Amino acid sequence: MSNVGFNKIQVKQLKSLLKTNNPNLETSIIKQVSSHIADVVDALSQTISETETRITENFRHDTKHESNKLRGDIKNLSTTMATKYQVDNHENRIKVLETKAFTSG
Question: Which of 47, 77, 85, 96 could crosslink 1 through cysteines, CB 3.0-4.6 Å?
Answer without folding.
Answer: 47
